[in-house]
Design goal:
The protein is mostly helical. It has one domain (31-121, 130-181). The protein is 75% helix and 5% strand. The protein contains eight helices and two strands. The chain has a two-stranded antiparallel sheet with strand order 1-2. Strand 1 (123-127) and strand 2 (130-133) form a beta hairpin. Helix 4 (55-64) crosses helix 5 (70-90) and helix 5 packs across helix 6 (94-113). The longest helix has 22 residues, at 2-23. It is globular and about 55 Å long.
Length: 182
């Protein structure tokens, strides 16, 4: 009986140790990397689709939902999604570029998606070709916004231009310090 209990205690101890390793600071700093990659590719894919159809086609959609200056906003959103997505992907100016991307998501949510409810996937029916889905709700917009907020407060993480810039910044300040003292 005591061997079983001590075996369970050792097993529980090992599990706790593994959790401590996984939740440690060493791994926590990598959390933003997959978020950046997924958002970056997602924004770029949507921006590229708008670019391929032509921003004027997207402008017509914006006109139908009563967005002011639809053609100008179509160009703005298309370029923001392509270049903002690229900035997220490479981790450059992540906190700065996240703000207009959040506004873009809010705009899409309140002009297009909100009238379809929360769910991103609505099954309307099932055919031999598979499920027939209705228009998406605002769930994906909220997920994108939440991830962008995480990047604003948590930073870009390693493997990013922002991390490279922050490593260089302290060196340049140290190089300037003696000149300031003189």
């Amino acid at each position: 009986m005591s061997q079983v209990l001590s075996g369970q205690a050792i097993s529980a101890s090992k599990r706790i140790h593994v959790l401590e390793l996984l939740n440690g600071e060493r791994w926590r700093r990598w959390v933003p990397v997959p978020i950046r990659m997924i958002l970056g590719v997602g924004f770029m894919a949507h921006g590229w689709a708008k670019w391929n159809r032509g921003p004027a086609v997207f402008g017509e959609l914006l006109k139908q939902v009563h967005v002011p200056l639809p053609l100008a906003n179509a160009w703005l959103v298309t370029l923001l999604e392509i270049f903002g997505g690229l900035a997220l992907l490479i981790g450059a100016f992540v906190a700065i570029v996240s703000v207009p991307l959040i506004f873009s998501m809010l705009g899409a949510m309140f002009t297009v998606n909100i009238k379809y409810g929360f769910s991103a996937a609505k099954t309307l029916g099932l055919t031999s070709d598979g499920p027939q889905l209705g228009p998406p709700g605002y769930e994906i917009n909220l997920l994108y916004i939440a991830c962008l907020v995480v990047l604003i407060f948590g930073g870009a993480g390693p493997l990013s231009i922002d991390a490279l810039r922050s490593r260089r910044r302290p060196q340049s300040k140290r190089a300037q310090s003696p000149a300031l003292v003189l």
